[in-house]
Amino acid sequence: xxxxxxxxxxSSSFGFVLAAAGSAVGLGNIWRFPYxxxxxxxxxxxxxxxxxxxxxxxxxxxxxxxxxxxxxxxPLTAYKNLxxxxxxxxxxxxxxPMMIMPYYCVIGGWVLKYAVxxxxxxxxxxxxxxYFSGFITSSVSPIVYTFIFLFISCYIxxxxxxxxxxxxxxxxxPILVVLIIGISIFALTMSHTDDSGSVRTGLQGLKIxxxxxxxxxxxxxxxxxxxxxxxxxxxxLSVAMGIMIAYGSYVRDESNLVxxxxxxxxxxxxxxxxxxxxxxxxxxxxxxxxxxNASGPGLMFVAMPKIFAxxxxxxxxxxxxxxxxxxxxxxxxxxxxxxxxxxSFMDEFKIxxxxxxxxxGGFALLLGILVCLGYNALYFEVKLPNGVTAQILDIMDxxxxxxxxxxVSIGTCLxxxxxxxxxxxxxxxxxxxxxxxxxxxxxxxxxxxxxxxxVILFLKSLGILNF
Length: 467
What we know:
By secondary structure, this protein is mainly α. It has 19 helices and four strands. The radius of gyration is 21 Å and the shape is globular.
């Protein structure tokens, strides 16, 4: 453990919780969570997600943070530090954020574009049908915004753990929470009268989100909802992509790991729910139940600008706050993705933070440009095993999230659950005498339940299992 003595650390448990929560609170929570909830029966998805968060998600999060603190290493080197024959798992865990970072910066660039549009009073233009497709298919503008987003992320990581990651998290996370709560309250108080004279309110939209809808529920649809909720946890908790191992390696030995993990769970779940409160009632008020069900992945960049345009003058202000909030969330996540790679380069190749940032930043920019060109000069379509018609971005997302992340999680469960045994993680989590209340649950999840669910998710992603 060469880097143990001089390794950077978070200044406090609070700093670690904010940084880890910042990583978790990204586009996955604010963009993906609401449309999956709308698609999968609202409250039913929410209930399943909450159950999985305190069982399945808890086990994966605890394992990765404990591995990081125990080894004081990044994902690339942590696994071989634990077991010499399992170094291959660390390599995959490092490849994942390297693959995610380029297209995450592209999407972050899209968010920045919309934030600039609303801040400069161009919200009405952003609501036009052709605005989003016109932007992403242009040859230069998406690349410029991708570069700006990537540069901001690289600068923060270059400043290091305390002055970069922790300092930014302490500023942005409170602002982020205030904005999300403010917009959520505003969404719940809205009402709109449609052309037929019917009045729709934000509180009616809230019912769609929190009350389970069992209409037409079958075993197949339940399994789809279960797999969607489980897949969402990867995004929400930032597990299986090396991030929590890297962040765990910066946690002081005297910190209460159990309490910190509980706080991250609460913080992340609360923000995911607030994102649903913010978006689903808003879409319902202006577009009805059909609009909620049909919005899908285009919800943030197509549906939301149209809704803000219908609000009149106040819509420009709310739209600006919304996209600034989403931009902050995207940045706090992108720096965690970047740090997983940078720390890996530093630990494996013994290079400076500056050189590691330059190498990964250059690599991410090149691939990011390819992703941008995938919507114009390099456009093509291919059918993926999960049935999605994909371009370059979708292919990278599929490989990283649907194939590599389940492999890392299954491998981690096998290594900790059956080879090194769960006591490896439990002893690390309780090294200061902490009370690990969910001890038995953790053992059951990491040895049996989590690997079983992960294999099902993996087979579904490959198109072998169909519900």
